[in-house]
Amino acid sequence: MRALQSAATGMMAQELNVQVISNNIANLRTTGYKRQQAHFQDLLYQQYRRAGTQTSEQQNRVPAELALGSGVKTVATPRAMGQGNLTMTEKTYDVAIRGEGLFKIRMPDGRFAYSRDGSFDLDNTGQIVTRDGYVVEPGLIVPQNSTGVTISNTGQVQATLSGQTTPTIVGQIQLSRFINKTGLESIGDNLFIETAASGQAIDANPGTDGAGTLQQSYLEEANVNAVTEISALIAAQRAYEMNSKVVTAADQMLSSTSQMFRG
């Protein structure tokens, strides 16, 4: 029976939907996390009577089709890349992005990854790195005799050296933008890599060419709304239950049919 297969696809789709929602809720406190959404499409239809088919010599035509669908499929789980709330941390090397752009991170294998997580620190050489020790481009080194470091809204890093009152410019943090940022591929650890769908990175100083500005001693929270996710979870659960009811109903109908044959 076609209803069994259609309902089964619906149950599988809602199971995946619940998995996506659960991952969003799990990352409710993950810095810079961008929530995912499951998108669905209906499957192929079997046409029994096409709309517009001629039904008589007087060219009468069928006003509506007679077709049966075969269920649903999941086509994408894109990320909503909207801005998350900024939270003060009072840590010198924590940096949040207000607006468009991602930090450019140099991976150990030489590739570049991109992130909204600005929880940075210094390694043993004074270089600004991520929590995993990956270098934040363009590889800025803070002098060891620095008594204070400031990062401006436009990404300029200045260090006040011991015995001096005038800050020294250490370097410039840049941001990377993408034509299609939802086309970025997530590789975990709050990192994305570019793909053919995202297009190539467009590097710019913060506050220029459409890039956002920076906020020192702040971090961006996940853009996950707990109430929205719980509501979506309840809706997905109810949709799963309704599809399971269809399976039960189809099974009862088949059982009745088989009993008729036995009778």
From TrEMBL:
Signal peptide: none annotated. It is found in: Bacterial flagellum basal body. One of its GO terms (cellular component) is bacterial-type flagellum basal body, distal rod. Residues 96-159 form the Flagellar hook protein FlgE/F/G-like D1 domain. Residues 4-34 form the Flagellar basal body rod protein N-terminal domain. It holds the Pfam family Flg_bb_rod. Residues 215-260 form the Flagellar basal-body/hook protein C-terminal domain. Keywords: Bacterial flagellum, Cell projection, Cilium, Flagellum. GO terms for biological process: bacterial-type flagellum-dependent swarming motility. Belongs to the flagella basal body rod proteins family. NCBIfam families: FlgEFG_subfam (TIGR03506), flgG_G_neg (TIGR02488). The basal body constitutes a major portion of the flagellar organelle and consists of four rings (L,P,S, and M) mounted on a central rod. The rod consists of about 26 subunits of FlgG in the distal portion, and FlgB, FlgC and FlgF are thought to build up the proximal portion of the rod with about 6 subunits each. This is Flagellar basal-body rod protein FlgG. The lineage of its organism: Bacteria, Pseudomonadati, Pseudomonadota, Alphaproteobacteria, Hyphomicrobiales.
